[in-house]
Amino acid sequence: xxxxxxxxxxxxxxxAGIAASQLTAAQGTTGLPSSLAERGTVLPTRGNVTRSExxxxxxxxxxxxxxxxxxxxxxxxxxxxxxAISDEQAQAVLxxxxxxxxxxxxxxxxxxxGLSEYRLGRFLRDKKPDDYIxxxxxxxxxxxxxxxxxxxALWPQPAPFNYQYDFTAAGxxxxxxxxLQRLGLPKIDIVYIHDLSPDNxxxxxxxxxxxxxxxxxxxxxxxxxxxxxxIRGWGLGINTPDAAVLAAESDVPTPDIVLLACxxxxxxxxxxxxxxxxxxxxKGVSVVVGTPLNDGFLGGRNRYHFxxxxxxxxxxxxxxxxxxxxxHGIDIRxxxxxxxxxxxxxxxxxPGARAAGQxxxxxxxxxxxxxxxxxxxxxxxxxxxxxxxxxx
Length: 392
Description:
The protein is an alpha/beta fold. It has helices at residues 87-99, 115-124, 169-183, 207-216, 218-227, 242-249, 270-282, 314-327, 332-341, 356-365, 372-380, and strands spanning 48-49, 104-106, 133-138, 140-144, 161-165, 190-194, 233-238, 257-261, 286-290, 346-349, 368-369.
């Protein structure tokens, strides 16, 4: 499907958003920094904090599976995306997330070639399994390798593995077993089939051919694993809606939950709102929103969906959103995170974080009371769709 103006997807994987950047005085005409802020800086949270805890989910009739926690954390930074962090920094970020109330963690074998899973498992090892949920992914099988690793710019200093694509039943079960070993934990709650998407240029052949393999392979096997009680739910983790829509409209195993990255944000949401969400809703499939900050763009970074190529008009729209937010006493990141979490079909949002201050600020944003007049102003100025749900 053709994407709209404010959407540019990554070519190498469904990746959680890079968290917020420092708002500086050098804003110019963009309303946000004109130069790329250092990774790890933080846009301060503004607004009236009225909640003491992060929001939880209420049951929604007809939904196949919903996570209990409405706010989580993406795991790409734990895999050294774009810049390496130490094991100590990774543990500090995860500790800050836990202290802030985060209990939903997303990871993948692809993130640092197992490094993200290893670091997450190490952190959670002394926690009670019932106190948190983990999602990981299948579709790539890791194998030890001393050769130069692919995607070196994306994953600096990864674990010493390479990977091959495998969407078969045996590949899915093997991948889950391998992930359990890397995590060193007794359970995985959600498993996504990763990057089965037309934007994934690495896939050999057509994504539809791989979808056909997955329909009788990984999808069927993950359904069995769910029915056996080994996992709670499964779905697709993708940068475009194609595979999720096809699964919902075809006679294939129905996903329980899908992770949509680069597809629903305060900047770009019309197509997902009018096409993808209704299609999934009919089958009771819930959604986890990845990259709700457009890869940190809504926090001030000059990156957009894992690229430094900013779509035409995106900076201007960001500036206008920032101006309206400031006028109503809040910050743009707070508005963006709560907007992404507002639809009833959305089970959770999972922004990423590289530094402890980022995850604390993200969690704080979910506790701010946003004035109703702010959302009215956005609708009046045409900055969000009139049909877009907003926080009550």
